[in-house]
Amino acid sequence: MQENPKRINEIIHSDSFKSFNNLRSFNILQENWLSYNDPYMRAALFLFLNWTSDSGLISSGKFQKLSSNPLRSKKVTNFKPRNFHLSLVEPSVSIFDSIESKPSDQFILAPMGRFTYNLFDDGKQIGIEQTHLNPTEFYSFIEGIPHKWILIYKNHKSVHNMYKKFNVIKIDRIGNVTNQNNCEDLIVTNF
After folding, report:
1. Regarding beta strands 108-113 and 185-189, do their DSSP bridges make them parallel or antiparallel, or are they unpaired?
2. Which of 49, 54, 75, 126 could form a cystine bridge with 58, CB 3.0-4.6 A?
């Protein structure tokens, strides 16, 4: 995506790619998108599955037909991030081991999503883009590491309770800082 976003946009808008915009192709691609060797095709499939999944998750979610969106297309073509360095955790590596191996001067950014105690998550299909964490274990781990960290959660009373000794910033639906308890997101930091 960083090397040639225009090429990825061209793949997504090609005539052959448009034939994927149906339930049968969607289900096949959800299972097989990672098997494509071409990184541009994989990136295009990732975006397509993200846009056509009702949940936004590429390996799960239900199909919703992709409609034309010129703004989305322009964003892909003009994608030029500055200082965009991510390191992904391999599925075989514990997220805790991965964080501990980072130099302590690096920030840890964790988009945590919806808070859950995972009581009913056993047996649910999860994809490569999802990680189930025990929130109590994660809290015990994160509070003891030397790194500066930023966690982003959807608003939930348990997040307020669990992280009460840290900085919790409430964000409303349009991205502004708010003091309202019915906010949309929470940003939790240890600095």
Report:
1. unpaired
2. 49
Nearest to 44 by CA among 6, 92, 94, 100: 6
Which spans in 15-162 are helix H?
Answer: 15-18, 23-32, 39-52, 70-77, 95-100, 135-142, 157-162
**Above pLDDT 90, what percent of the chain?**
36
Tokens (6 digits) for 136: 């109590």
Kindly list the distances between the CA atom of residue 28 and the CA atoms of 13, 17, 69, 179, in Å, as whole numbers in the listed order.
19, 14, 24, 45
* Domain 95-189: CATH superfamily, name plus number: Vaccinia Virus protein VP39 (3.40.50.150)
- pLDDT tens per residue, range 108-136: 777 777 777 655 555 455 666 666 677 88
Handedness of CA 181, 112, 47, 26 (dihedral sign): negative
Q: What is the CATH number of domain 5-77?
A: 1.10.1020.10
Length of the chain: 191
CA distance 139 to 137: 5
